[in-house]
Amino acid sequence: MKLIYLSILLALFSISSQAQDIGKEQQLDSVVVTSTRIDLPFKENSRTITIISQDDIKKSATTNVADLLQQFAGVDIRRRGTAGMQADLYIRGGGFDQTLLLIDGIKVEDSQTGHHTMNMALPIEVIERIEIIKGPAARIFGQNAFTGAINIVTKKNTGNGVSLNAQAGSFGQFNGSVVVGSQLENSSHIVQVSRNISDGYRYNTDYDNQNYFIKSSFHTNKAPIDLIASFQERKFGANGFYASPTAINQYEETQASLIGISSKIMKEKLTLKPKLYWKRNQDMYVFVRQDPSIYRNLHQSNKIGAAIDASYYSKIGVTGFGVDVANVYLSSNNLGSRNRFMTTLFLEHRFTLANNKLDITPGVAVNYFSDFKFHAFPGLDVGYKVTEDLKIYGNIGYTYRIPTYTDLFYSSPSELGNENLVPEEAIAEEIGFKFNSGNFNLSLVGFNRDSRKLIDYVKENEDDLWQATNIRDLNTKGVEINAGYAIFAGNLKQSITTGYTFLEDDLKAVSSNFSRYSINSLKHHATVGLHTQVTNNLYINGIYKYAERTIGESYAVVDASVRYTVKAMEFSILANNIFNAAYTETNLVPMPKGNLLFGIKYNLK
């Protein structure tokens, strides 16, 4: 922990020695959280929400969403290799199947397995901001928002211009991207194309990643129309990624695509936000890269959906309501051909009392699944504004997760799915406060989650196959604190951000002789970011991450970046794991030691 204290002291020294004029950062309350039916400024929400802005992305010393999210306490990204090529997403100790990902409010969960969630994470060049919603979220989003949700909000326009970016560095890494923006009288358009390749940091960890993204916004007289299309293809060696570390010749290819169209229709008191979308995922897994005939899985999933969210303003507050309808199709040589129809109805109302200082928001989500029938999940948010800068809040809600098709039907020489599984369920609560005065922000929250019917693989005899069963109960409690401080030395911005999460899991015993359920949460997770603007053109950023897992393993990693701008040119150096920490994040896959990435960017306006 010495490094974390050193980082804080260096940041405070930097701030105190350079401070001349204290300025205000952009107010967080000017950011409207758009991932819910009732759009509210950040400071008005009575939930734990983290906003990652474009400025945060620039200061993150990262090239992808997986690495970026890892810098925020309470979010556990377990990576296999570099560049976020394969990574699993966890929030507050939940599983990788228990967090929902959204793109511009469109739910893009994968029905095959949560291992594919991060396949949909977009290139950071096209991201406006990321909203992290922690805690019980089924009432807001529906299925699989068991421990929280992450909404990636894309840019609406970049103006007229072309941005060319090239990076090269350790392990034969090369990243190249082009972003083209066009702002017309009644429309705006963004096109992004990129390719990232690497020889790999060890045997059979090479990759080739291609990304294509288009967004067009049409400003019609009646209502704006946003069209989004993305396609991402990843091909990578998966040395020990999924099986035992001795399985060094694994290989995988994935494709993830999304086409969506949305609008926002505003009347005097009524706002409607309709969406239509098609999300597709394809995964080919080969156990021995040199001989696919030994063991090969091929899965294709399609989700076609429509949703409409609405809010109505009246004398008694704001009513949010909506409906989400989707059909999922799966074709797999292992899981079979599957078809699931699902519908979710949402209803919530926000009351404001005591001169708008007290807000109370009860709500419920009612779901129907063709294979799991009806479920209802109520919740309640309460908040009290002590001052304009300080708010205390609490919420409680039921939440759930539908089993994936892998849970239900997967079969291998060592394990079997179980088509009789039922949804996992939990009741979760949190209480805390958040303070934001512009140049200083502080939040503290305590949370508790009682989970039931968690899916575990168990067996009675050593020679039996592992069988998926709803057998586990788990209590998770913890505390999370975040703080940030920024000042201006003249017109040069200096800032420090810190975060810390503590988790404690109480796993209830089961009657089976053998259990494969493994609790390996981040018991302690601390992050510190030091961001210094040295001159008008030079920026230096340092990121410190400390992690201690439930099983006792701990590690500390430091990343850094330097950016220098000269007119339309930007030069950068990204350094990851600069102190050569030896560590793993999942499945005993060793992470790379210190590595560098040199970049050059040209912006033509």
What would you say about this model in short?
By secondary structure, the chain is mostly beta strands. The chain has five helices and 34 strands.
Folded structure, characterized:
With 605 residues, the protein is mainly beta. It has helices at 2-18, 54-58, 65-69, 138-141, 405-409; strands at 32-33, 40-41, 48-52, 75-79, 87-91, 99-103, 106-107, 127-134, 148-154, 161-169, 173-183, 187-198, 207-219, 224-237, 251-263, 265-266, 270-286, 296-314, 317-332, 336-353, 358-369, 373-385, 390-401, 415-416, 424-436, 440-459, 466-489, 492-507, 514-515, 522-533, 538-549, 554-566, 569-576, 595-604. The longest helix has 17 residues, at 2-18.
Rg from alpha-carbon coordinates: 24 Å
Looking at the overall shape, the CATH architecture is: Beta Barrel
Helical/strand content category = mainly beta
The total beta strand count reads: 34
CATH fold assignment? Maltoporin, Chain A
Basic shape: globular
What's the CATH first level? Mainly Beta
**Mean of residue pLDDT?**
90
Residue share in helix = under 10%
- Total individual domains: 1
Oligomer: single chain
Q: Considering the protein shown, what is the CATH homologous superfamily?
A: TonB-dependent receptor, beta-barrel domain
Helix count, DSSP H or I runs of 4 or more residues? 5
The major beta sheet can be summarized as:
22 strands, antiparallel, barrel
* Percent of sequence in beta strands: over 45%
Low-confidence stretches: 1-26
Distance between the termini: 46 Å
